[in-house]
Amino acid sequence: SGDTWFGTLDHGAIRYRDNEYEQFKTENGLSHNRVKCRLEDSKGNIWFGTEGGGVTMYDGNDFFQFTEKEGVSDFAYCMLEDSEKNIWMGTRGNGLLRYDGKSFTHFTTLEGLSNDNVFSLQEEITSNGSNLWIGTRQGLSKMSLRKINELIQGGGKLSEDEVIIESFDPR
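Structure (tokenized):
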């Protein structure tokens, strides 16, 4: 969009555009003034992950908040849009969230994450499909996006030998 965005510890988000600064806070629609991360998606929406208020999406006109009411952790520390246009959110204590534009799906240690505190996300595109690399407090996890899609579309059933998340603990 040509804008530069900054998150602040207690002063919301700041947009720098045409040599001017504009501040966005809870009074404007941001869910919390402590902004930990932000993402501009392929549609031009700006997503803000906050510490204490979940996630806010700004479409250029209006703010839309996703909080515990929608199943989103109050603490979002990293975000990524994958090649299939899903928005992924790493949280403190609530694992990984996937937003497909309609609903949220949770992935935690129960699904194989090395830890439910997720601090970094990176997509790897290979000839066999895409993988999502997930940096957690206790190591690294790799998730096959193809297998995740099959799992969700197939009603959540895996065969015994399938692994959707592999984890590595560096200790």
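The chain has one helix and 15 strands. The first strand starts at residue 4 and ends at 7.
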